[in-house]
Automatic annotation (TrEMBL):
The lineage of its organism: Bacteria, Bacillati, Actinomycetota, Actinomycetes, Motilibacterales. The keyword GTP-binding applies. This is Elongation factor G-like protein. Keywords: Elongation factor, GTP-binding, Nucleotide-binding, Protein biosynthesis. Residues 56-72 have a biased composition (Basic and acidic residues). One of its GO terms (molecular function) is GTPase activity. It comes from the Bacteria. Residues 51-72 are annotated as: Disordered. InterPro entries: EF-G-like_DII (IPR053905), EFG_II (IPR041095), EFG_III (IPR009022), EFG_III/V (IPR035647), EFG_IV (IPR047872), EFG_V (IPR035649), EFG_V-like (IPR000640), P-loop_NTPase (IPR027417). Residues 23-298 form the Tr-type G domain. It comes from Vallicoccus soli. GO terms for biological process: ribosome disassembly.
Length: 719
């Protein structure tokens, strides 16, 4: 088995916790923008729980969850990583999700595997637009959330109260601080003041101690504490509690804590906690909050299931003794053990060395030939609880738990594992479409086969990839989420699969068509000893409406072209249409009428008339106006209202035609436009800049339209 080289996991890793009841599990995903401190926080929590002897550092490449070479090089998370720990007898599966937009697929996988989310907000950088939209998405499904404010000890950090005010403004109701940071004698963070308990948790001595607050602290925080208590009481199921509180009754602390935990678990109240992971401040409070306030898998709604044929089945329950239903949320390839699947168990108990049924949503993936076969039985390999690169064996995974499964050679990300006697299929989770196309080519002939195989495996691992062999342009096109995503993929192709690969300019599928009627004559006469070649044909050409395709009409009279060669002329015309008549692109929407010709009793043949038909079409094009057609996409851009003008201006600069805008709520608008595909090659990257990270878009092919003459002339010259 591979072993982590990180300082945080140095030495022998502790035995993995292996719960037998779902109520002893918490599945929590950490989300937030790049640089907010998620990975550093995970390191601190692992150390505070005793899972690792000391926390690693992102800057040193020694963290548990960022063990991939690309992560060490870039000093940021690029993949979802599982970091299990045990606290107060409960297994906590921390899912460290990447914050950069290119790796949203792993973020979505983390949300699928989790029952609650910790939103990590940097006091230096605040809340970005992507985090705000993710909060709204979690709110729509009722996912419990808490906010952790990090980097309060940094020079440019905002005041904690200011960060809370920002979170309340952008996240909405129910966001309230549960603790306040306490400054030490040197002005740095020294401890926390619990607003409910009115207890100071002092870390100034290097260890956590509890004491009563100073009298001046009580007066300073009274307003904040009163607002918190009113917020908790407002969420209480006891409708008399607010009246009693307003009447001056002192509400018992135990009642407040119980109501707080219930409100957090049902996703209607969102505590804010200050935390300084490098100094160890607030980590115990975070762990207590996860275990006490976040729901167990028993309390979280489970996804719907059907049979593999699509017939609905009754709702799942998180029962270790129920039917097995688990889902592959992430797939990786380990150089030692091969394919490793990260699996969330929804129902039943997953055990090693058992045969399960693997079923999946075939339309979501492009597969290499060896990856086909997506409704099969397969034997489960060893189960483990990963801690970074270390795989710690476990005997089982009960409903609600997350584990790694070795050697599932046919299962891909998003696939369902279930009983082979009663197979089921979990509804797919929402994944964004990859929108940055990149044409790839092998650097040598020897790399061509390895490139196809390596790309096929990467696509099977990552549902935000799509691989297309474009028949019109002859290019192998990988659709990904952005340049950082592409950088990681190319590095894995070279390092993991030994493939020499380069990118090349993306070609767009252009077409040609006649702008008006034309006449052409094709004459193929050749005498070279023995039988010669003789064929003459004359054709009339006229354009057809878009989408009409090709029509061939025979109007020859008097046998000028013998019947057996009529089809030969058509075949020659079709062949020339595929090759193009002006710039080498296929000709479309055309009617060709054969009106006359000549034949020789000995020298005419099928091939001679095919050649004459092709020459006739080229002759017609020589004297006609031929349009170069380019594909247009219908583009829908969802963007914050303040950037609508900038997006519309940018689309216009791309020769796009804005067809409409409409508000969609939450301060966002939908901008629709028709844009040439030539101008959309890098739009996935450029939109982030124009919209300051608030924009997303979809695109679909609409039609081909004539290219402007100036641009068409440059394309013809370049071709």
């Amino acid at each position: 088995m591979p072993h982590s080289s990180s300082a945080g996991a140095a030495g022998r890793a502790p035995a993995a916790p292996c719960p037998v009841r779902p109520q002893d599990v918490r599945d929590v995903v950490l989300v937030g923008h790049t640089g907010s401190g998620k990975t550093t926080l995970v390191e601190g929590l692992l150390a505070a729980s005793g899972t690792v002897p000391r926390p690693g550092r992102v800057e040193d490449g020694t963290t548990v969850t960022d063990h991939d070479e690309a992560e060490k090089r870039q000093q940021r998370s690029v993949s979802l990583a599982l970091a299990p720990l045990e606290h107060a007898g409960v297994k906590v599966n921390l899912l460290d999700a990447p914050g950069y937009a290119d790796f949203v697929g792993d973020l979505r996988a983390g949300l699928r595997a989790a029952d609650a989310a910790l939103f990590v907000v940097s006091a230096v950088d605040g809340v970005d637009a992507a985090t705000t939209m993710l909060w709204e998405e979690c709110a729509a499904v009722g996912m419990p959330r808490a906010v952790l404010v990090t980097k309060l000890d940094k020079e440019r950090a905002a005041d904690f109260d200011d960060v809370v005010a920002i979170c309340q403004r952008v996240f909405g109701d129910g966001v309230m601080p549960l603790y306040l940071p306490m400054a030490g004698d040197d002005g740095g963070l020294a401890g926390l003041l619990g607003l409910v308990t009115q207890t100071v948790y002092d870390y100034s001595s290097g260890s956590r101690t509890e004491r009563e607050p100073d009298p001046e602290h009580v007066a300073l925080v009274k307003e904040t504490r009163d607002a918190l208590i009113e917020g908790i009481i407002g969420e209480s199921e006891d409708e008399t509690l607010m009246d009693r509180y307003l009447a001056g009754e002192e509400i018992d602390e135990k009642v407040l804590v119980e109501d707080l935990e219930k409100a957090v678990a049902r996703g209607s109240f969102h505590p804010v906690l200050p935390v300084c992971a490098p100094a160890g401040i607030g980590l115990r409070e975070v762990l207590d909050g996860i275990v006490q306030g976040f729901p167990s898998p028993l309390e979280h709604p489970l996804p719907a299931v059907t049979t593999p044929e699509g017939d609905p089945r009754g709702p799942l329950t998180c029962d270790p003794d129920g039917p097995l239903v688990a889902e592959v949320v992430k797939t990786t390839t380990d150089p030692y053990v091969g394919r490793v699947s990260l699996v969330r168990v929804f129902s039943g108990t997953l055990r090693p060395d058992t045969v399960v049924h693997v079923s999946g949503h075939n339309e979501r993936f492009s597969r290499a030939p060896e990856e086909e076969g997506h409704d099969v039985d397969e034997r489960v390999g060893a189960l483990s609880s990963p801690l970074g690169a270390t795989q710690r064996p476990v005997p089982h995974a009960v409903a609600g738990d997350v584990c790694a499964v070795a050697r599932l050679t046919r299962a891909e990300t998003g696939d369902t594992l279930s009983s082979k006697d009663a197979p089921l299929l979990v509804e797919p989770w929402v994944m964004p479409e990859p929108l940055l196309p990149v044409a790839l080519t092998a650097t040598s002939k020897a790399d061509e086969d390895k490139l196809a195989q390596g790309l096929g495996r990467l696509v099977a691992e990552d549902p935000t990839l799509r691989l297309v062999a474009d028949a019109e342009t002859g290019q192998l096109v990988l659709w990904c989420m952005g340049e950082a995503h592409l950088d990681v993929l190319l590095e894995r192709l070279r390092g993991r699969y030994g493939v020499g690969v380069t990118s090349e300019p993306l070609r767009v599928a252009l077409r040609e068509t006649f702008a008006g009627p034309a006449h052409g004559r094709g004459r193929h006469v050749k005498q070279s000893g023995g039988h010669g070649q003789f064929a003459v044909c004359e054709i009339d050409v006229e354009p057809l409406p878009e989408g009409s395709g090709f029509e061939f009409v025979d109007r020859v009279v008097g046998g000028a072209v013998p019947r057996q060669f009529i089809a030969s002329v058509e075949k020659g015309v079709r062949a020339q249409m595929r090759k193009g008549v002006r710039a080498g692109y296929p000709v479309v929407d055309l009617r060709v009428t054969l009106v006359d010709g000549k034949a020789h009793s000995v020298d005419s043949s099928d091939m001679a008339f095919q050649t004459a038909g092709a020459l006739a079409l080229k002759d017609a094009a020589a004297g006609a106006d031929v349009h170069l057609l380019e594909p247009f996409d219908e583009v829908s851009v969802l963007v914050a209202d303040e950037y609508v003008g900038g997006v519309m201006s940018d689309l216009s600069s791309r020769r796009g035609r804005v067809t409409g805008t409409e508000p969609v709520g939450s301060g966002r608008s939908l901008v629709r436009a028709d844009v040439p595909q030539l101008e959309l090659t890098r739009y996935a990257v450029d939109l982030r800049s124009v919209s300051h990270g608030t924009g997303s878009f979809t695109r679909s092919y609409a039609r081909h339209e004539p290219m402007p003459p100036g641009i068409a002339a440059r394309v013809v010259e370049g071709g």
